[in-house]
Amino acid sequence: MLKTVTTTEDDFSLCPKFTKTFSILGKKWNGMIIEVLLHEKTQRFKDLAGHIQKCSDRVLCERLRELEQEGIVERRTYKGGSRIEYALTQRGKELSPVMAAVHNWSDKWCDEALDQMEKIS
């Protein structure tokens, strides 16, 4: 369970586990990768890249490696190494309620931000 440590009103600090979690989830594209793999289960690199079109292949590759090192994504290599797929580990699948909460929050609060983005485009 993520905890915030508070001793007094003047002495506040964030739990190191909470900080670590946001260093993973807060990194650009990681949430998108997790979301695609939650819904699409297993993806080849090119298919995953097709879902996250604004992310360069180089950055997507980096993020997948980082998520793999964190135990959130697994890289599956098949005979001959010609077929490689990515899927969430159990640790990654357990982010499903977190992602659902983000969806709920964004449904409630992000309409204005989308309107502003459309005006800029």
Q: Which structural traits does this protein have?
A:
121 residues; two-stranded antiparallel ribbon
Secondary structure blueprint with pairings:
Blueprint: E1 4-8, E2 11-14, H1 16-25, H2 30-40, E3 42-44, H3 45-51, H4 57-69, E4 73-77, E5 84-88, H5 90-93, H6 96-109, H7 111-120
Antiparallel strand pairs: 1-2, 3-5, 4-5
Describe this structure in words.
A hairpin with a 6-residue loop joins strand 4 (73-77) and strand 5. The longest helix has 14 residues, at 96-109. Helices cover 57% and strands 18% of the residues. The chain is an alpha+beta fold and 121 residues long. The protein has helices at 16-25, 30-40, 45-51, 57-69, 90-93, 96-109, 111-120, and strands at residues 4-8, 11-14, 42-44, 73-77, 84-88. A three-stranded antiparallel beta sheet has the order 3-5-4. It has a two-stranded antiparallel sheet with strand order 1-2.
Q: Strands of the largest sheet, in order across it? A: 3-5-4
SSE sequence, one letter per element:
EEHHEHHEEHHH
What are the low-pLDDT stretches, counting only 5+ consecutive residues below 50?
A: none
The radius of gyration computed from the alpha-carbon positions, rounded to a whole number of angstroms, is: 17 Å
Number of strands: 5
Average residue-wise pLDDT: 90
- Helix count? 7
Shape: globular
The profile of the biggest β sheet is: 3 strands, antiparallel
